[in-house]
Specification:
Layout lengths: L2 H16 L4 H9 L2 H5 L5 E3 L8 E3 L14 E4 L4 E3 L2 H10 L7 E5 L5 H10 L4 E5 L3 H10 L6 E4 L11 E6 L8 H5 L1 E14 L6 E10 L5 E11 L11 H4 L5 H6 E5 L9 E5 L2 E5 L3
Parallel strand pairs: 5-6, 5-8, 6-7, 8-9
Antiparallel strand pairs: 1-2, 3-4, 9-10, 10-11, 11-12, 12-14, 13-14
Helix pairs in contact: 1-2, 1-4, 2-5
Length: about 280
């Protein structure tokens, strides 16, 4: 099977598993060469943290091994991986990236999913990748050179950005959205990020993906749309929030989330995840 056929098969597999509705996103998965971003094979495929050996080695360097819905190690010693394609696909689709959008990708790693985002933003769009690990940021710069609209910054994204964005996609677990992120959203701007808390025996956090959108009036809608297991962000984490975030795991409560309230207020029956400056609440009566 040719590489082009492998990538088309892989994109179709991801679309089926993730229930994608965006053909543009499926086509982006089919175009971006995953093997380039993962480095030369054989590759280490994640088998699960509960396994005695968390990785298995592919028999050889045939790219067919990594054109499946599998997690591939970037640095096995640190359990640093290129994320699950079906999960990332669903989260990226929730960003609703349009041609010409300006997008921030916080936690871009080596840039594979940043390249897919760049395909969606198109030639007239702009993508800024933030990566806190210097060697990953440098690697991403080189790998993303074929996408001239992409800039990679070795930065944790905590400082007030010089730009504003149509989309901000966060690829590491947080417990709240820093005010600088919300302020950087343009009208109708979307922020998609994983809200996570730690559980015993798990090396990563678990929780839910949240999609926040700035309205024309400057308020924010919000909805929880996917469970998530992911390693934590270097910023935007406060362990004191974790007890509140556990409320997200109640499906009835999670379905009620409709808005983000950043104003100071006392907890009420409408508050589902009540964190100072970051309260996910039900729709107003």
């Amino acid at each position: 099977m040719t590489l082009d056929a492998l990538r088309r098969f892989y994109a179709a597999e991801i679309a089926a598993v993730s229930h994608l509705t965006s053909q543009r996103l499926v086509d982006a998965f089919a175009r971006v060469p995953r093997e380039v971003f993962l480095g030369p094979g054989p590759w280490q495929i994640a088998t699960g943290f509960e396994s005695e050996n968390p990785y298995r080695t592919t028999p050889d360097a045939d790219p067919a091994h990594i054109y499946h819905n599998v997690v591939v190690a970037l640095d096995p010693a640190r359990q640093l991986n290129n994320g699950q394609p079906s999960a990332l696909a669903r989260w990226i689709e929730a960003c609703d990236i349009a041609d010409g959008d300006t997008v921030a990708h916080i936690g871009c790693g080596v840039g594979y999913y940043t390249a897919i985002i760049a395909e969606l933003a198109g030639a007239t769009g702009r993508v800024v990748g933030y990566e806190v690990v210097p060697e990953l940021a440098e690697r991403a710069r080189g790998l993303l050179a074929p996408w001239p609209a992409v800039e990679v910054r070795c930065d944790d994204g905590s400082a007030p950005p010089a730009d504003t964005y149509d989309v901000m996609f966060v690829n590491a677990g947080v417990t709240f959205a820093p005010p600088v992120w919300l302020a950087a959203l343009r009208p109708n701007g979307r922020l998609v990020m994983p809200l996570t808390f730690q559980m015993p025996l798990l090396p990563h956090g678990i929780g839910a993906m949240v999609r926040i959108q700035r309205t024309a009036s400057g308020d924010f809608t919000a909805r929880l749309f996917s469970q998530v297991g992911i390693y934590g962000c270097s910023i935007a984490r406060d362990p004191a929030h974790e007890a509140e975030l556990r409320q997200m795991m109640n499906p009835t409560a999670a379905r009620r989330v409709a808005a983000l309230d950043t104003s100071p207020h006392e907890r009420s029956a409408a508050c589902i995840v009540h964190v100072a400056g970051f309260c996910l609440r039900a729709a107003a009566d």
